[in-house]
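Lecture notes, unit on binding sites. The following record was shown on slide 14. It pairs a sequence with adenosine monophosphate.
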Amino acid sequence: MIDLRLLREDPDRVRASQRARGEDVDLVDALLSADERRRSSAVRFDELRAEQKALGKLIPKAAGDEKTELLKKAGELATAVKAADAAQNEAAEETQRLVLRLGNLVHPDVPVGGEEDFTVLETVGTPRDFASEGFEPKDHLELGQLLGAIDVERGAKVSGSRFYYLTGVGALLELALVNAAIAQATAAGFVPMLTPALVKPRAMEGTGFLGQAAENVYHLEKDDYYLVGTSEVPLAAYHMDEIVEASRLPLRYAGFSPCFRREAGTYGKDTRGIFRVHQFDKVEMFSYVAPEDAEAEHQRLLDWEKQWLTGLELPFQVIDVATGDLGASASRKFDCEAWIPTQGKYRELTSASNCDEFQARRLSVRMRGEWRGSGATSSGGGGRATGGHVRPLATLNGTLCAVPRTIVALLENHQLADGSVRVPEVLRPYLGGREVLEPTAK
Ligand code: AMP
């Protein structure tokens, strides 16, 4: 949710942001007029209430015709106060309804355009030249089947398309990835968290997943629960309706959860294997920071993602995602895309979003006191000062390991000619020291 004061002071900036996102610009004017009505009706209500109170004091002192006249006026005023109250409530509700539909303001450096209009910020590593090694790379599904690691046929039999089983070494590989990712995050100071996968509407709405993204979300109508598409949702809502002392910031959590995605609108896309599925597990980094620290934290999240992918020895590029592909909550998003040999292109593996104060305003998460840098302590940080200024903080999220896509990239990039797969060193301690995964299929 954007700051309504900013909207009033600089509506053109909000219009430009909506335009850059390819979204409804008229919404800005509808919101401005609802906000104007909200403010003027609140003033009107306050005036009438003051008049009513003043009149109330005069009545006991009056007598005769004067009293009759005052009582008549009091009756009229009571009706007017009731109407003004209804009008202010209606305008406030309309303002809230409209502001929740508005996306976050885009960062001025974000490239303008759609999915294909990203900017490449950096390329790390070099894709392998399989031709020079004398063999044609197999795709992840063929490798997964040879290793006895992936079973999509039975996934489809039991649950339908875009479902799968990870079996044998595939299951072990997921557990190894998750443990390695949690170990990296913990070493960086993140608190590991196992989060709920079902949340109430407010958590979903607050994180910005019920607007344009709603069609991608599973809803359990009978109980009015949503299945989360990412642990970003329960991690953002973790401090809902709370005030965090500035001295405690940044707060960093590494969530591990199943993620459920309807994948509406992707019919026919990535239908082979486990690249795009309805259910997967993910380790997600989530930070609460002071707004003035948000851009630096965004860079730090990206650096942790790069550390992770570099450790897995995957070639990848970092992109600055274009305005039209940001999603409602992000003001800026950096994706890391790993090279997928059989597709001959880089594909998204991680995504780091700076949501500024957008989610915090919707979820009412605020900070108290001045933030004096991440080294501040409770005694020196000033945040414990009672009566400190209370204001929204900023939230950011970044993927560390989205399991199936990471498995796709690992199998394809580290395959050997006979269908076995080399295990990168960072993962070996989590796989009982195994250096190579061997085919099991006859
Ligand atoms: P997002 O929360 O949409 O930024 O996604 C985080 C990461 O999860 C992406 O970078 C992908 O690696 C992965 N991911 C997203 N959707 C799917 C899906 N349907 N199946 C498998 N992995 C996915």
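Take-home: The first helix runs from residue 4 to 9.
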